[in-house]
Amino acid sequence: MFDHPSYDHHEGVHFFEDERSGLKAIIAVHSTARGPAAGGCRMWDYDTGEDALRDALRLSQGMSFKNAMADLPLGGGKAVIWGNSRTGKSKELFEAFGRAIESLNGSYYTAEDVGIDTDDIAIVSTQTKYVAGLDTGAAASGDPSPTTALGVYRGIKACAERAFGTGDLSGRVIAVQGVGSVGGYLCDHLANEGAKLFIADIDKVELEAVRSRTGAEIIAPESIYDTDAEIFSPNALGAIINPQTLPRLKAKVIAGGANNQLASPEMGFAVQERGILYAPDYVINGGGIINVAAEISGEYSRDWVMTKLDTLVDTLGHVLDEALSANEPTHLVADRMARARIASSRPA
Ligand SMILES: NC(=O)c1ccc[n+]([C@@H]2O[C@H](COP(=O)([O-])OP(=O)(O)OC[C@H]3O[C@@H](n4cnc5c(N)ncnc54)[C@H](O)[C@@H]3O)[C@@H](O)[C@H]2O)c1
C-alpha cells in the first residue's frame, strides 16, 4: 500500500467485506487535518480490486483538496462499493455499508456519488449518523447534484470570461459528456442562457430527456471529443483527458463536474501547451460538498451554501488568473493552494 502510485500519505485505507450481503467496499481517509473526512460513495462494477483501490485513493485525495478549496472544516475521504449499481443493490448491502462507516467512529462522513442515490443513503443512515445527502431530517440537504451543477455552470462562465473575454454563454458551443445528475442540471442552466449544446451519454433515456428539455444535439459517446465545440464539459467519469483524447479536442476551455478528469498530472501540462484553459475539477465541482457540509454542520442553511458558492467561484477565478499570469498549468496552481490550506490546518 505504501508504495502504491496513488497513495499520498493517506491516514487510513479500510477494506470491508460482508459475506452475507456481498458488500465489498473500500473507505479511504486521506486527511482529517481540517476536520472529519467527507466525500461521497461511488458504486461501480470495477474490473479488478486494484481498479477499485486506485479510484478510492485518488478520489479521497481529491476530496481533501476539494474541501480545502471550498474552505470547509472538513478533511478528505471517499468510499467505493465494488458492484453493479443497476443489479447489485440491496437493503442488506447498504446496511452493512452503514455499519462499516459507523465502525470508523466519525472519521469519515459519506454521501451520494456515481451509482448511489438518496434512497440508498437513507438505508445507510439507519446504521450510522455519519452520513449526509439525506432527503428527510432536521438538517437534510438532499441531492447535492443541483448545487454541484450550479457551481459548474458559474465556473464555466468564469472560464469563458478569461478565454473569450466574456462570461456570456449565449451562442457558445458547448460539448457536454455525461448528462446524469450533474450533467443534466448543468445542461438546463446552459440552455437557459442560450448556449448551443452537444451531448453524449451511454444512457439513452437520460439523453432523450435532456434533448427534449434543452434542444441539445445528441452525439455518439466516442465522438464527443471530436465535436467542434468551444467548451468541453466532462460530467461522466474520470481520466478522460489523456494522450488519446486531448489531441482530438478543439475546445479552448475544459470545465465540468467530473472528478479526476486528468489521466495524470502530466496531462495538465499538455492541456496548457495546447492553449486550453482547464478548470481544476475539484475546485469547479465543489458546490455539492458545500451543500453536504451544511448538513454535516447540523443546521442546513441555503443562504450559507450560496455564500460559500460565491467564495468558491472567486477562488476558481484566483486559480485561473494566477495560472494565466504566471504561465503555469491551472492544476499546479490549485494543488499548491490546496496543499497550503491543508498544511496550515494541521495541528502543530
Ligand atoms: N453528484 C454530485 O453532486 C457530484 C459532485 C462532485 C463531482 N461529481 C462527479 O461528477 C460526475 C457525474 O456525477 P453524477 O452524480 O452526475 O453521476 P450520474 O451517475 O448521475 O451521471 C453520470 C452519467 O455519465 C454517463 N456516462 C458513463 N460513462 C459514460 C461515457 N463513456 N460517455 C458518456 N457518458 C457516460 C452515465 O450514463 C450517467 O448518465 C462524476 O465524476 C462525479 O464523481 C458529482
From TrEMBL:
UniProt keywords, alphabetically: NAD, Oxidoreductase
Glutamate/phenylalanine/leucine/valine/L-tryptophan dehydrogenase C-terminal domain boundaries: 142-346
Positions of transmembrane segments: none
Highest rank taxon of the organism: Bacteria
InterPro entries in the record: Aminoacid_DH-like_N_sf (IPR046346), Glu/Leu/Phe/Val/Trp_DH (IPR006095), Glu/Leu/Phe/Val/Trp_DH_C (IPR006096), Glu/Leu/Phe/Val/Trp_DH_dimer (IPR006097), Glu/Phe/Leu/Val/Trp_DH_bac/arc (IPR016211), NAD(P)-bd_dom_sf (IPR036291)
Family affiliation: Belongs to the Glu/Leu/Phe/Val dehydrogenases family.
Protein name according to UniProt: Amino acid dehydrogenase
Annotated source species: Henriciella pelagia
